[in-house]
Amino acid sequence: MNPASLAELRATFGDRMQENAPLSGYTAARIGGPADALVFVRKAGELIQAAEMLWKMEVPFILLGGGSNVLVSDLGVRGVVIINRARLLKFNSQAEPPSVHAESGASPNDIAQRAARLGLAGFEWAASIPGSLGGAIYGNAGAYDGDMAGNLISVEGFHRQHGSQIWPVDKMQYGYRSSVLKRSHPPVIILSADLALKHGDRQAIKSKMEQFSTTRRANQPPGASMGSMFKNPPGDKAGRLLEAAGLKGRRVGNATISTQHANFFINTGQTKAADMRALIDLARKTVLEKFGVELALEVELIGEW
Q: 299 with 253: CB under 8 angstroms?
């Protein structure tokens, strides 16, 4: 980034900005080289302000919430990374159905836990899943027969040309771990969303969430990872294919395919993004050669490769 742009950003964002900052501290896998600048936002209005300024300056930027489902390159990101900490939640228990208005930096797990304490059900599947609401909306996150498409009422977004917009759930054109935003990458940021809930028994909701969390801990490995690496191909499971291909435990550098669940690739210590990418390529090549199945990434590759 040129010095004049950096100076303008410093004057605007002050101590909310860091320069040449490693992204490894802001991703779930603890991997990633430096961004030219990080800008921290804590309200939806600050998110709009940052995006409008960067678009006006023609400075490229990406948005990170919880930093899951992404692999950032060792070379990092040119331009700005906005770290989204806009987490306001407003529950409406009196509506029918009850709902929650949540800013995009909120944690799905936090929404689920807060809803449970209010006796509101329907979002239990999100208990303990990583990442931010914005990322979950963008990628149609899901677990245990639930997903964002099943809860979303509408999304509030901000478009570079058209400003604030409200999109009902059908406009998101959801598919398996996919949305129109993820497929076409329009100049849009997700500000907030309204999610549908339902009334329920607090103890029953709590028990269901505990059951899901226990199952997750039993089936998914601990450690720094991006979440599920590959999408499940039609009629099969990516983890089953990777295991059947003999890939459990395979390593490149400190990047390792989990011996507990083969669709989780673990950073076992100071892992380079290049090693993780090499392990991804090895896994895809092996599964294609053995089974004729081309695995599609669920994780997005970010930065200079």
A: no
Q: For tokens 């129109």, what's the residue?
A: 180
pLDDT in tens, 115-152: 999 999 999 999 988 889 999 999 999 988 899 999 99
Main-chain dihedrals φ then ψ at residue 82, nearest 5 degrees: -90, 120
The residues near 139 (Cβ < 8 Å, ≥ 6 apart) are 69, 177, 178, 179, 182, 298
> Annotated catalytic sites, by residue?
177, 228, 298
Helix boundaries (H) for 70-177: 108-117, 133-139, 148-151
Beta-sheet pairing, 77-84 with 34-41: parallel
What is the largest distance, in Å, between two alpha-carbon atoms of the chain? 57
Tell me the residue type at 118.
L
From edge to edge, which strands make up the β-sheet containing 77-84? 17-22, 34-41, 77-84, 61-64
Render pLDDT for 63-82 as a digit per residue (tens, 0 to 9): 999 999 999 999 999 999 99
Quick check: 48 and 191 in contact, CB under 8 A? yes
Pairwise CA distance, residues 284 & 220, whole Å? 20
